[in-house]
């Protein structure tokens, strides 16, 4: 089993990934500004308080791990201001991983990031740009940084997120011709992320999940 660092571990997809990674038998280092509040306490879980934008925190977090799962998010109130969290945090993370010789990175962006935006219809693209344009412009930069790195990366692009149960019945759409919008539960996104810890079939791929 692997030693896994999960960045953004205190809520949403990140917290669900912590749960599922532990259930799968991995040793988990949960990294978040409020990691100590995570209501889990198995011996294979290490809670590490830290800021994804603080270089020293991230450098400490990546030491001794086999893989990193990066799950970042911004609040609704931040969507209407310039967003730099995704690119700034990823720049710090890539440098820290390279220095620590940690190769495996599994990152979450979203459907509409990078070249997946071209598969949206005009009716989808207009409200997407109005509501999420600033955040996804920064996710575009984030993806380019990851893709240009020498890391063993996989980028997950989930469609519209729900709080539904883990079903395992989601689609992993690798080929651009198959990309489409849809819905997927955070628990199913976590299921995909945990599988990628040991599954190398999607190295240097950016599938859409729906």
From TrEMBL:
<protein>
    <recommendedName>
        <fullName>NAD(P)-binding domain-containing protein</fullName>
    </recommendedName>
</protein>
<dbReference type="GO" id="GO:0042602">
    <property type="term" value="F:riboflavin reductase (NADPH) activity"/>
</dbReference>
<dbReference type="InterPro" id="IPR051606">
    <property type="entry name" value="Polyketide_Oxido-like"/>
</dbReference>
<dbReference type="InterPro" id="IPR036291">
    <property type="entry name" value="NAD(P)-bd_dom_sf"/>
</dbReference>
<dbReference type="Pfam" id="PF13460">
    <property type="entry name" value="NAD_binding_10"/>
</dbReference>
<dbReference type="InterPro" id="IPR016040">
    <property type="entry name" value="NAD(P)-bd_dom"/>
</dbReference>
<dbReference type="GO" id="GO:0004074">
    <property type="term" value="F:biliverdin reductase [NAD(P)H] activity"/>
</dbReference>
<feature type="domain" description="NAD(P)-binding">
    <location>
        <begin position="8"/>
        <end position="199"/>
    </location>
</feature>
